[in-house]
Design a protein that fits this description.
Blueprint: E1 4-9, E2 27-28, H1 36-49, H2 54-74, H3 96-108, H4 113-124, H5 127-138, H6 150-166, E3 189-194, E4 204-208, E5 214-216, E6 231-236, E7 243-248, E8 253-259, H7 270-274, H8 276-284, E9 288-289
Parallel strand pairs: 3-8, 8-9
Antiparallel strand pairs: 1-6, 2-5, 3-4, 4-5, 6-7, 7-8
One zinc ion binds at residues 182, 184-185, 187, 208, 210-211, 213.
Length: 300
């Protein structure tokens, strides 16, 4: 496995983000066009270039392709009450997400043996079982759900919640503190991205693990404790510049920082799963990851 490489820190003076004209948007709600098409293509490309993870990344590509295929249908499902999305833990799930899960199981059920068995389990499950899996996932109670089922349940919830977020009127969303939990749905972050283009060029946005909303946070700044004093950057030796771990020596947490200037197609979910070696090394260094990728729950 590649080693860990320290590639910069706030003490040495990291390059600042470019100053954009006008105030950048605090929130970036997901687009009406499916957010899943590019992600599926990215998973497919990473499966080709990461031989040791090829089968796993190809399965994720298949799963995200189903999310994409379900997108238009879910833009038609009713929004939660009053068009106000509350945090998922306070909110009854809209039943349509269960339909998404059953459609995912139908589409992927003809796959290889372990996947077929998981899909069969989903098809046989009652509504109550499906709801209990969703509750465990959304409340980060990972002992309550089979880790094999988690990516499928997560994918269905992502389609449902992203379709809500994409239909919100940005001007009517009152903001709301933006920390490491999503200001729209309350879920944990998955990673953060240095964006390119237009008013967001060079700015850092944090990505929600559930509803595809992004929110702005300063660069070179710990998303957990807010300190800029002792922030360092680590990468995997020889793995390129696109994915780094931004680590805070104060609170010993890290988040992944993905750089679209270095790799325009980098994706917070796909590139996260393709760089799990970086997580292993960061944990060995004594850092704890802030947030998680719903497609691979901690401990899986
Ligand atoms: Zn969210
Ligand atoms: Zn910190």
């Amino acid at each position: 496995m590649s080693g860990l490489e320290k590639v910069g820190s706030s003490r040495e003076g990291m390059p600042k983000g470019s100053q954009s004209l006008g105030a950048p948007p605090l929130l970036r709600l997901p687009p009406r066009q499916s957010p899943f098409a590019k992600r599926a293509a990215r998973f497919r490309r990473l499966a080709e270039s990461h031989a040791s993870l090829a089968g796993y990344l190809a399965l994720m590509a298949d799963l995200v392709e189903v999310q994409h295929d379900l997108w238009e249908r879910f833009l038609q499902t009713p929004l939660p009450d009053s068009h106000i999305i509350r945090r998922p833990l306070d909110n009854q799930q809209v039943p349509a997400w269960r339909e998404a899960l059953r459609l995912i199981a139908e589409r992927l059920g003809a796959g290889s043996e372990p996947v077929a068995a998981l899909c069969e389990r989903i098809r046989q499950a009652t509504d109550e079982e499906l709801e209990s899996w969703a509750t465990c996932l959304l409340s980060a109670n990972f002992q309550g759900i089979d880790p094999g089922l988690a990516p499928f349940v997560a994918a269905a919830l992502q389609v449902s919640w992203s379709s809500f977020a994409a239909r919100l009127d940005q001007d009517r969303v009152r903001t709301i503190e933006c920390g490491y939990r999503c200001p729209i749905c309350g879920s944990w972050l998955v990673a953060s991205m240095l964006q390119t283009g237009g008013s967001v060029h060079g700015l850092r946005y944090v990505c929600c693990s559930l509803c595809s909303t992004e929110w702005n946070r300063p660069r070179i700044h710990c998303i957990h404790c807010g300190s800029s004093k002792d922030v360092s950057y680590f990468g995997l030796e020889g793995a390129g510049e696109a994915v780094k771990a931004e680590a805070c020596a104060g609170c010993k947490t890290y988040v992944k920082l993905m750089n679209r200037e270095k790799e325009p197609f980098v994706d917070p979910f796909a590139d996260d799963l393709a760089t799990l070696g970086l997580d292993i090394l960061m944990v060995e260094e004594g850092y704890q990851r802030l947030g998680f990728n719903l497609l691979l729950i901690p401990g899986s």
